[in-house]
Design goal:
- It is built from 15 helices and 17 strands.
- The protein is an alpha/beta fold.
């Protein structure tokens, strides 16, 4: 049997996921050839800018606590591509990933050939992976699919499926070249997950998380014009209270149907508490249509089991090392707030590597008050900004003595530990690695001794 490395290399040989084909028909054609695998289980579809993966993991955990078998599709991954396709809250086993890919490969090639005859690009990496995910879920089989949109929503490959519940996490400007340069434009594109592609399918129920005013207005206009039932953060559901707890926080959530008090959420940050409230509202819509409250004990069990690798993840102590995949200004602002809320470091040293196509100044402006000094470097991604370029930008936000450039992630981590030790309060110092998923993945592997 071919191994995972070979299959992943074949997928990577396709058009990369940051080079999107604005279409749905190619993904739909492949899914239909495989027996409409995209309709094999009901779907909870999640779109937004920040918090999609965390919210997906929370929804997965809540549904699992209700004895449902869950398939979850998220992106990107930290260590292995198998992380993107999860069954029973675990990455699909490598042998299943490879076996099912080989089973569907002839159908992917058939669609590739049809597209080539039309002078169009063959299935992209993300389109092929989306079809593979649906095939894995149909093979399992699962009771429900938690589906994270990649880029946008309207023409995202995941949108071949009709969500029974559609979820919108916070929307902000990111991928502006593809999605538009305002929250309203981006919200209208992401609202495309509300479209129905299966004639007999029911209208979706909708849960909308906290949004900027522009994005909220655009979403509400679309939802109301379609006559859909929706609950909104702040009116239909929301946080009642939160307080710090050991390795997380205690939250209380109110929905239209119920009140859930003193829930342990084992991740930090106000934004993660908001994601949890949104996840509860979405699961309530899915399981009861929003008409009845969920069992409080099962909700507690579900949230207590949540993990969010690479999102405010503590991987070392003394000095404490926190990994967070914030890659845009909104995500960085959430990280900065969480650091002040949950960690209270005596000195905070940032390790930063970002992609050149991101709003770097926006990200730096969100982090400048949170980091006492910053070590700039680069990840292994070909999209990474070079350390010298990032250093030049960082010097516009920090004093010269508080900006250090290192050529690679290993050197940056070693320097960060040295800087923490030099403070004289190693136990109270914090190192925060951020800037992209690629940044966090590489640091995580180094710190956990996986490379």
């Amino acid at each position: 049997m071919s191994d995972l490395r070979e299959v992943y290399a074949e997928l990577l040989a396709r058009q990369p996921e940051n080079q999107v084909e604005v279409r749905l028909d190619a993904t739909r054609r492949a899914a239909e050839l495989l027996g409409n695998v995209h309709t094999a289980a009901p779907v909870i579809h999640i779109a937004g800018t920040n918090g999609k993966s965390s919210t997906a993991r929370m929804i997965d955990s809540l549904l699992t606590a209700h004895d449902l078998r869950v398939g979850r599709f998220t992106s990107p991954h930290l260590a292995s591509v198998t992380e993107r396709i999860s069954v029973d809250s675990e990455p699909v086993p490598e042998q299943d990933f490879v076996r099912i890919y080989r089973e569907i490969e002839p159908y992917l090639q058939m669609v590739d050939a049809e597209l080539a005859r039309e002078g169009r690009a063959r299935l992209t990496f993300f389109e092929a992976l989306t079809v593979l995910a649906f095939a894995v879920f149909a093979d399992a089989p699962v009771d429900v699919v938690v589906l994270e949109a990649g880029l946008g929503g309207e023409w995202d490959a995941t949108n071949v499926a009709d969500g029974q519940v559609c979820v919108f996490t916070p929307i902000s400007v990111d991928h502006a070249a593809l999605l538009g340069d305002s929250p309203a434009q981006i919200a209208r594109t992401k609202a495309g997950i509300l479209d129905r592609h299966i004639a007999e399918g029911p209208a979706p129920l909708v849960a909308v998380g906290e949004q900027p005013e522009e994005a909220l207005a655009a979403l509400a206009e679309r939802i109301e014009s379609a006559g859909l039932t929706a609950v909104y953060a702040g009116t239909g559901f929301g946080l009642l209270a939160r307080e710090r707890a050991v390795d997380g926080q205690l939250i209380s959530v109110q929905t239209a149907a119920g009140r859930y008090e003193d829930l342990l959420l084992p991740v930090h940050g106000l934004h993660q508490a908001g994601n949890a409230a949104l996840a509860i509202a979405a699961v309530e819509l899915f399981l009861t249509g929003g008409e009845r409250a969920l069992d409080r004990e099962l909700v507690g069990d579900g949230l207590a089991a949540v993990t969010t690798p690479g999102r405010l993840e503590v991987v070392r102590r003394a000095p404490t090392v926190v990994l967070d995949a914030a890659h845009n200004p909104s995500g960085a602002a959430g990280l900065a707030a969480a650091l002040g809320d949950a960690f209270h470091f005596s000195t905070t040293i940032g390790v930063l590597a970002v992609f050149r196509d991101k709003d770097v100044h926006g990200l730096l402006s969100s982090l400048v008050e949170a980091f006492d000094r910053v070590i700039v470097t680069r990840s292994l991604s070909p999209r990474a900004l070079q350390p010298a370029e990032l250093e030049e930008l960082a010097l516009q936000w920090w004093d010269d003595e508080n900006v250090i450039a290192e050529p690679d992630m290993e050197a940056a981590l070693v320097r960060a530990v040295h800087e923490a030790q030099a403070t004289g309060d190693e136990a109270g110092a914090g190192i925060v690695v951020t800037g992209s998923v690629s940044t966090v993945a590489e640091a995580r592997a180094l710190l956990k001794g996986e490379v």
